[in-house]
Request: fold
Amino acid sequence: MITRDIQLAVDCLDKNDVVGMPTETVYGLAGNAFSEQAVRRIFEVKKRPSCNPLIVHINGTADLSAVAADIPEAAVILTRHFWPGPLTVVLKKKSCIPDLVTAGKATVAVRAPDHPVAQELLRRTSWQTRYTAPGLYHPRGNRSRYRKRDNQKQGNGNPGCSGYAESPLFSKNTACYFRQSGNNTGDVRR
Reply:
């Protein structure tokens, strides 16, 4: 079904179903970021290997502490400057984020989308009453792609996994590096 009815999409998300939604960069599948059932459904629909982590979408910098721990000041400064928009930060995850989201890693990738539909879905989801921030998983809308030749080297022993993940703009344990995006990254300094 194709619809512009945001409430219908919110109702689906509240039932742990998945919906397609736009961001400023791509269309993708979204589901309740705190529900392992919803996350599993995204992996099933996309035929995505479980070693390929998802990105959690939130409303903005004020909601980071709902999904991430030990947030460095540099991440706060960057997110205040570039969010909403196509900036991904990788931070230590909180226990409310299921391991399936992060492929068992201790970190979580987080974004705040700059698209009115995505922002409205995040504002209107009911699970925000259970957690400080609503969160949507939002992998790209296309089927998962991975490079089999990297399987043994980077796939953590999981069949069909390459270790491929989106390049973040900021990670606490690395220097800043950039990926192609709509952001004016010239403003970011090391």
Q: What stands out?
A: The beta strands are 19-22, 27-32, 55-57, 68-69, 85-93, 107-112, 136-137, 170-171.
